[in-house]
Amino acid sequence: MNKVFLFFTLSIMCITMFSQSEITENELKNHLQFLTSEKNAGRYPGGKENKWIVKYIEKEFKRLKISSFEIGYRQFFNAELRVDKGVDKKPVVKTCNVVGFIEGNDSTLKNEFIVLGAHYDHLGLGGPSSKSEKRRVVYHGADDNASGTSALLEIAEKLVSNKEQLKRSVLFIAFGAEEQGLLGSTYFVEHPMVPLSQIKLMINMDMVGRLNTEKQVYMGGAGTFPCGVNFMTDLGKSLGLNPVVHAGSVGGSDHVSFYKKGISVLGIHTGGHPEYHTPEDTIDLINLEGEKWVCEYVFQTVFQKASSTDQMYFINQD
User: Fold this and answer.
1) What domains lie within the chain, and their CATH numbers?
2) What is the pLDDT of residues 110-137, one digit of tens each?
3) What is the mean pLDDT of the chain?
4) Residues sharing a CB contact under 8 Å with residue 270, sequence separation 6 or more, in sequence order
C-alpha cells in the first residue's frame, strides 16, 4: 500500500513539475482567452479594462516568483492618445508597464540583462489606428498582441524553472500604450529601472500567433549583436522552424525604442495578415501549436544568451 501511495505521490509531483516548466498550448490558450475577452474591451490604455489586464500580468509574475523592483511591478506613465483627423485635443490617460526580473547567478554577469518584452494593449473599440471602419465594437487583438503577452508569460514560467542555470539576469516587460506610438517602451528607456548600459539584448514579441504552414518566423535586428544572424538561423532550424532572419530591418515595435539607445535588439513576429487592426483578429485564428514552437524558439534564445559567457555588445545596422 505504501509503495502504491509513493508511486502516486511521485507521479503527481512529476506532473506538477512538468506543468510548471513546460510551455503548453493549453496555458497559452488560457492567457489568450482572458486577454481577448469581451470584458477587456480591446485592452485600451487607461480605464478599468487596462487595470484588469495589468492586475492579471502582475498576478502571474507574483505566482511565478519573478522579482519586482522597489517601486513594485508597475511603472506608471501618462499616455497621450491618438485621435481622428480634425480632432485637436488629445486625451491623456494613466497607464503602466509591468516589469519584473530573474537575477542571474554569476557574480559579474548578473549585472547584465537580457530583456524579453511584449506589449499588452490594443485598439479598444476602434479608432484612428484601425484598418476597419467599424467603431464601438471590440478589437480583440488576439495576434496583436495577446499572442506576444501570452508568450511572455509562458516563456517566463519556463525560465523561472531553469533559473539556476542563468548567469545573466533576465528582465520581463509587458509594455503599455504601444499602439499609441511606442509610449511604454519610450518611457522605459527614458526612465530605466536598470542602467541602459547593462542591457545587452532586448527581444520583442509582437504578433507571434499566426505561424504559417512553412513555419516561417520573421525577425529583424539579428545583426545588432555578435554572430546573431547565424545564431538565430541555426537555432531556428534545429527546432524545425524556417527562420527568416534580417541583420537590420529593425521594424516598428517596442524594440525600436531600445535600438535608438544603442542596445542590441531582436523583433520577432510570424507575419502580417488581413485581420491586422480589425475586429476580426480573434483567438480562433491563432495557431496554438505554432505559437508554442515560437515560444520554444524564443525561450532557447534567451536561455542560451543568459546562460553563456559570450561577450555581448551593440552593432549598429543603420
Assistant:
1) 25-306 (3.40.630.10)
2) 999 999 999 999 999 999 999 999 999 9
3) 94
4) 143, 207, 208, 209, 210, 211, 212, 216, 217, 218, 287, 290, 294
Which residues, in sequence order, are CB contacts of 20 under 8 Å at separation 6+? 157, 161
For 212, other C-beta atoms within 10 Å of its C-beta total 13
pLDDT tens-place string over residues 199-254: 999 999 999 999 999 999 999 999 999 999 999 999 999 999 999 999 999 989 99
Determine contact, residues 216/159, Cβ cutoff 8 Å. Answer: no
* Phi, then psi, of 295 in degrees rounded to 5: -60, -45
**Distance of CA 174 to CAs 57, 63, 246, Å?**
8, 16, 24
Rounded CA separation 177/133 (Å): 21
Lookup: cell for 287: 495557431
Where are the alpha helices (H) located in the chain, listed in sequence order?
2-21, 25-35, 47-63, 147-161, 183-190, 228-238, 255-259, 288-306
User: Cβ(292)–Cβ(23) under 8 Å?
Assistant: yes
- Predicted model pTM: 0.93
Q: Give the other-Cβ count within 10 Å of 162's Cβ.
A: 14
